[in-house]
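Teaching note: in complex prediction, the entire set of molecules is handled at once rather than each chain in isolation. The prompt given to students was simply: 'Predict the structure of this complex.' The entities are:
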Amino acid sequence: MQAAVIVFPGSNCDRDVAVALEASIGRPPRMVWHRDSGLPKVDLLVVPGGFSYGDYLRCGAMAAHAPIMRAVCKQARRGVPVLGICNGFQILTEAGLLPGALLRNANLHYICRDVHLKVERNDTIFTQKYRKDSVIRIPVAHGDGNYFAGLGTLERLEGEGLIAFRYVAPDGVATPSANPNGSCHHIAGIFDSGRRVLGLMPHPERLADPRLGGEGGRPLFDGLVEALS
Amino acid sequence: MTAPDPATIRAHGLSAAEYEQVLAIMGRPPNPTELGIFSVMWSEHCSYKSSKKWLRTLPTSAPWVICGPGENAGVIDIGKGLAAVFKMESHNHPSYIEPYQGAATGVGGILRDVFTMGARPIAIMNALRFGDPDHPRTRLLVEGVVAGIGGYGNCVGVPTVGGETNFHTSYNGNILVNAMAVGLAASDRIFYSAAAGVGNPVVYVGSKTGRDGIHGATMASAEFSSDSEEKRPTVQVGDPFTEKLLIEACLELMATECIVAIQDMGAAGLTSSSFEMASKGGLGIEMDLDLVPMREEGMTAYEIMLSESQERMLMVLKPGSEPQAQAIFDKWELDFAIIGHLTDQGRMTLRRHGQVVADLPIDPLAKASPEYDRPWLPCVKRPVLDLAQVPVFEPIDALMTLLACPDLASRRWIWERYDHMVMADTVQRPGGDAAVVRIHGSRRGLALTTDCTPRYCLADPHEGGRQAVAEAYRNLSAVGAKPLALTDNLNFGNPEKPDIMGQIVEAIQGMAEACRALDFPVVSGNVSLYNETEGKAILPTPAIGAVGLIEDLDLMATMAFKAPLQAIVMLGETRGWLGSSLYLRELCGREDGAPPPVALHREKREGEFVRAMIAAARVTAVHDVSDGGLLVAVAEMAMASGIGATLEPPHLVAAHGWWFGEDQGRYVVTATEGDLAALLAAAQRADVAARVIGNTGGESLTLQGVGGISVAEMSQCHEAWLPGFMAEPANFVNG
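The expected output is the structure of the full assembly:
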């Protein structure tokens, strides 16, 4: 399996996700600079976290219009899996690959802390190594992670089973205090309609190594390797 | 040319005597640009004129020190071909005037100091001091400073892994924002600032120059008055996105052979960077200011030279390497401009619109900057407090008061607003004795801490200076790291007042003693004086930022209890020292008494013993005993784990002294039943006092014969204060 990580000016989790991918895949991913003229032929495209172009405009808005994102969207339409983490999720919504938007956190602060997520389904390439309805612990680190979408979109996400992860308490219950940013329906991550694109605000790459205090994110990468190799 | 009038000279912060020296060096009256350059170069901030004499007395060398004070940051050898590069610096005055940008640019500046030397920044720390929580401005300042530090560090993608925060009325009008950055470099690829090679191109890279921050260095060298608000235009504006690009571009260029010398443009901007590079290289420099990338039109030479616009670097390149270097900066979409060259004239010559606008000799200006031996008064020693004269409170009630007091309450609200995990190497997150970051791709780690107890420093600056260094040493030892070196940030009031100068002198003397005794050299630092508002000085605050090395992260210690039924052992001696303690301040409303003395010979022995026990896996949890004393330390270990403890009654010391005394050189450790005897025997062999004081277990902290309190209730109380103060609900998960 070969993965590629798209690097924008201001990306800052590109190395972190590359390390996690290498640990699962066994070889380093290709790092693709935003101005490179095309995408290499790979099995997985990753849009990493960070502050692309400083995020001085709406988060992800500038990056979504970078030429490389046209190529990413084209590949996604052909069925190449795409994973967007944090700023990557914001970019995927801005680029129209995923519905909805990430608004300012409800408490207006940047938040960096571990959260608990419920795995909504495990029959996807991204979640097949998790147990359905299991609760995992990985961190969030964002100022704009408050998932919002219109009622119709939320109904469709729920109805079609496109919600990947939800913020819950450690016991799996979606309590208000377990939702760090005010997201609609406690949404932490969503799939596109084909479940080949995943966007999520929490960082699986940050807890994929026991030395860092947990491995809640590791099965996501291991699952991708199993599914795409 | 007309000579500047006395008012203009004063407005530039130059004394009459200093201006006489300007005339002697120039042989004529300086023009406005030249006067501005003298003003910033000779400001306290850039010249250290009041503190230099005393700074020289600090020990700065050790076999592992690669570069001590004098460069952009200190450099130490950490083995395996790597070096740690670090420094701490203040941004106090700007942060008071404009908290968000002041703090943000403080972080930006210290990061540049580190990557200028060829190091990739891997961690940010800070040391913050705010006024009384009841002061009307405090909340706004906390909000702005924390948001600014986070806003910058989060975007740049360097984790903010720890720090310390105090509140005290003396900081009402002068908060302290000290930021520390730590980077990693190949030990044979360190970059320095001394220019070399007559004719070599002088290159400007990074952001464009604007009118922001003009005279920041002079502002940072004067007392505040009620017109401080009017100084807002002197605060710079940060652009962390550009900083991120600048880090990547500079590190990419540093991997080539293009660079001869490099210096960031910090305080006093283009003036001090060009002067320092030329002066250190014994060369001259000619620059055409028309070539400087500018943000706005019509800037004068004065404004260009004194601008403190952020995210800029000055470099001397090898001739012929310009195209290769330019290609890298083009890739990162940053300005790159050849603005001059080096000469052998020993002068700085500046041109603007084809005219020479300044022509100054470099050495006399940079090296003959004033140095003062300011008069100082020894500080009056306070009497040692008699324990019998201190009221006794019910210990659990007193504990709960302390856990929720502004200086001890949980800082979660602060550190959860910093990305403390980016780079995916944060092994010990904020909240422990020291933060630990893994050396990327290895089993080794760096432990980092910032420490100072200003109330001790006020009570006795000499003892306070010793204690700040000793506590840093202890915090590093408590996670199992060998303490290697430190950076200091000396924050004091007006040095022209003999009592304040006395605090400076004695604190430095105390620090120097501790550094020598603990083999713990000072490799970089910063001095911030004139921290006074309307004649009232801050508590003397010599903040220490320290770095230690953990050889095997598998053997790192943390403070959380690990399991029930383990023995709790106190290492070190307890006399029940309540002078200048938090107990005295928070429970009795008093701030008197001599502070606890530090026994440096014991400190070293105990630190070595603790590290040896951690390395031998003889202890399961380790925590140093500091603010609030023994009971607070045990409570913190319980709260970090969700596991309770039962403690035996006080031993040979009055109860309030036993539970809340702040005797120095103490640690609380836990050991399994199987390891306890070996631990106690080893302590005896090492001549370290060790005493079993209780056991872990249960869901409460229980004092035999007194009563107890549940760990959950303690956490609630400990976590609630800061969010409550900031008018937000607390949000944390127990355990």
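Point out the following to students. The two ends of chain B are 72 Å apart (CA to CA). The first strand of chain B starts at residue 65 and ends at 67.
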